[in-house]
Known about the structure:
Blueprint: H1 2-5, H2 26-35, H3 61-71
Amino acid sequence: MDDNSLILPCEAGRSRKRPVTKDNWKRSKLKAQRRRPKGLPEYPTCRHDKKSTFSCKKLSMSDIHRFKTSLY
């Protein structure tokens, strides 16, 4: 039991194991590359009439880009 008394606890923030960084894993990199958009967003073609609640013609290209960047 004397051997255990020689082991000192580590200082705070200085652990012996490397921290887990999932962003550097091969599988996570491939997953992020798969989900990345292939090109610029396309402007939607709206077939709704003027009385409908959906009006794509009022959307600007920056609104579409902002929406797509929030997804990806």
